[in-house]
Design brief:
disordered C terminus, 5-stranded antiparallel sheet, mainly beta
Length: 438
């Protein structure tokens, strides 16, 4: 039996392509007719099924974030450190993969649904397949799939460099399968873990693969953007940012990628025409951190100076449409009393909902929401990470149903934040946005 969880899905040779869906056109999902089973196709709406919520890595929350009166709804200690953000399915179940390879499923009320040890080494970011199977790649190059408290399948990826430390987040396919990436390879698997396509990359990746225009899209270390259809022998060059990017890209619409270059510029890339442009440039002494979060024509980013952390939003012309200060702190001072050197912070990417409310985490471990009226914080939500750690205090954020989000601390605590809904307001006119050039 085939269950379709969205309007897009396929088992066989046909596929309907949406901007953020990918089809394995060469081969379909293998079905053993002697062993009937339910196959779930299509990517269910809602939740946060990938690193950065959706296959486009947009950072756009499908559920409304809380607007005010934040409170901690529940807290759960997982018992091991966490370096990757949480995933959430359509029922509000949160999934977290710990650094020792344990996978946790926490129900909407904060109770443990299940917990399993996979013994995976240094797991990378995970994704949820159509049937809520959790898939990730570990540092040994093993693909691990877990569902309902048991390891469902394992597969091996051969990386020519032997370097799997980055472990980019897998990408779910609309037919229930998955594409996984290592430093220099892409491979597609069906829902049962059978490999159905593999391709080598000519350069390393600068972030996780995403879905755009029916293809798997990868940004290389040089800023070149590659497109791959599972089953094809090799990826094709689509376009290029013209500069090295960091922290991964986000899909703003069906053909526009956004990424940060040099911690100083927000770049856009039109995949239809191959045109790259600088959308915004930070003033001297200010750093931009990606990946950005997108909402229609607006892009939201973390901005950092020696004394201030902010969320800044710009439109497609680079005009500022949003700015809210998140935190302030004293400037660094050297041992001789002079100005200290600026250490770039370990940061957590923000989320944005349809109302333009932004969920964020500060470099000191607070979490909160930012609106045009200002920011509201829950201070000391996560303890600071050790100085030697490369992880921020908050490993990641995800929406958790209406007016709620979930956050996971790098130290191993998962907690839910709830608040009031955004009050009904008349539709804003463009003249009220206060847009001004950067």
């Amino acid at each position: 039996m085939i269950r379709r969880d969205s309007a897009v899905g396929w088992v066989g040779a046909a596929c309907v392509v949406l901007p953020t869906s990918v089809c394995a056109l060469a081969t379909g999902q293998a079905i053993d007719v002697e062993r009937p089973r339910t196959l779930v196709v299509g990517i269910p709406a809602g939740g946060a099924r990938t690193d950065r919520i959706d296959p486009g890595r947009s950072g756009h929350a499908g559920w409304a974030l809380p607007y005010s009166d934040l409170r901690t709804e529940w807290r759960v200690s997982l018992g091991e450190p966490v370096q990757r953000g949480p995933l959430v399915d359509t029922h509000g179940v949160t999934y977290v993969v710990g650094t020792r390879g344990d996978v946790f499923a926490i129900s909407r009320d904060g109770s443990e649904r299940w917990h399993v040890s996979t013994e995976a080494r240094q797991p990378g970011s995970a994704t949820l397949l159509s049937d809520d199977t959790v898939v990730f790649v570990d540092s040994d190059g093993d693909v691990v799939a877990v569902r309902e408290g048991a390891t469902r399948w394992r597969a091996r990826i051969e990386d020519r460099t032997g370097d799997n430390r980055d472990n980019p987040a897998p990408l779910p396919l609309v037919d229930g399968g998955v594409v996984v990436a290592t430093t220099h390879e892409l491979a597609a698997f069906d829902a049962e873990g059978h490999e159905r396509g593999r391709s080598a990359l000519s350069e390393g990746t600068a972030g996780p693969p995403l879905a755009a225009r029916g293809k798997v899209v990868v940004v290389g270390l040089t800023g070149v953007v590659w497109g791959w259809t599972p089953g094809a022998s090799e990826p094709s060059r689509l376009a290029g940012f013209g500069a090295r990017t960091s922290d991964g890209a986000a899909l703003a619409d069906d053909h526009t990628l956004l990424a940060v270059a040099g911690q100083s510029r927000l770049l856009s890339l039109d995949l239809l025409h191959g045109e790259a442009a600088v959308r915004a440039t930070a003033p001297p002494g200010t750093f931009i951190f990606g990946p950005p979060a997108t909402l229609g024509s607006a892009t939201y980013m973390l901005w950092f100076t020696p004394t201030i952390e902010e969320i800044v939003g710009v439109d497609e012309r680079g005009a500022e449409v949003f700015r809210t200060m998140l935190a302030s702190h004293p400037a660094a001072v050297s041992v001789d009393g002079g100005a200290g050197s600026l250490a770039l912070p370990r940061h957590t990417a923000p989320l944005v909902d349809d109302n333009g409310t932004v969920a964020f985490a500060t470099t000191a471990g607070a979490v909160g929401i930012a609106t045009r009226s200002g920011a509201e914080l829950l201070p000391f939500a996560c303890p600071p990470s050790p100085a030697a750690s490369h992880a921020p205090p908050v490993a990641g954020l995800a929406p958790l149903g209406q007016d709620a989000f979930v956050a996971v601390c790098s130290a191993g605590t998962l907690f839910a934040v709830h608040g009031r809904s955004r009050p009904a307001q008349p539709k804003e006119r463009s003249s009220e946005l206060g847009a001004r050039p950067l």
